[in-house]
Amino acid sequence: METIGIITAMPQECEAVLRLIEQRNCSDLGPYRCYHFRLLDRECWLLASGMGIVRAAQAARALVDAASPQLLVSVGIAGAVNADLEIGDVVVSGKSCMLDNGLAGPFQPLAHLSEAAWQATERALQPGGAKVYPGIAVSTHGGQLVQPQPVQFTNPILEMETAGIAGVAAEHGIPLLSLRAISDGPGAPIPFDLEKMMDEQDNLRTGEIIKTILGHPKMLPQLVQMVRNSRRAADNAAITLVAALSQPGPVIAP
């Protein structure tokens, strides 16, 4: 039986997947709460790593050591760099890289969906009006700007985990699939500087966030909308995951 290791950053992203799964069980995997369920004849292991590249890599190593998966999946929400992508659209990244001081590092090739899996995701997202696109996952610490590189960057998205998982996947020769739905972007930006709201370990500075909100009460409607957008994105990422992995031969290795 094929085993798939699925990593989300936040519990909300994990819960979005679990809402689509009727039968599952759970166990402790070191510091993680790990959920187990089947899609077709595949045994899926799902956990939330916490935010950031380091935590994502640690979770990937835990899954590899415990389950020896034949596929790893990075799933959750991300920010759009360009205005072409709408809130809720899903990007299947063909490459990942790390962003350092605004410049992209080496590219790591990722797995992509088979034609049948791609079509299944399109059908699953259609009722909500979202679409699926190919793109590139750019991992960063908080919010950074991507320098224009039009040839290399097709539908770039900003997130904080995939590059960490990609490093572990490459070490063990395991393909990695990245499925990320858009929660923010030029048309619906995060209403504060995310990088300033995080410490060196990629923990949110809750006190700093509260201080910022109290100092800018007009920000509240934007925060409410941000929460709604994030919920929609997490749901669409989960829909894509389940639709794709419910197809025979859903993934093509790079």
Give an account of the 3D structure:
The protein is α/β, with parallel strands linked by helices and 254 residues long. It has one domain (2-252): 3-Layer(aba) Sandwich (Rossmann fold). 32% of the residues lie in helices and 30% in strands. The chain is built from six helices and 13 strands. It has a five-stranded mixed β-barrel. Strands 9-13 form a two-stranded antiparallel sheet. Helix 1 (11-18) packs across helix 6. The longest helix has 26 residues, at 220-245. Residues 144-151 have low confidence and may be disordered.
CATH architecture: 3-Layer(aba) Sandwich
Largest sheet geometry: 5 strands, mixed, barrel
The CATH class turns out to be Alpha Beta
The Cα radius of gyration reads: 17 Å
In total, the number of strands is 13
For this structure, the CATH topology is Rossmann fold
Count of discrete domains: 1
Which structural class do the helices and strands define?
Answer: alpha/beta
Q: Report, as a whole number of angstroms, the end-to-end distance.
A: 22 Å
Number of helices in the DSSP assignment? 6
So what's the overall shape?
globular
Q: pLDDT under 50 segments (min length 5)?
A: 144-151
Spatial order of the strands forming the largest sheet: 5-11-10-6-12
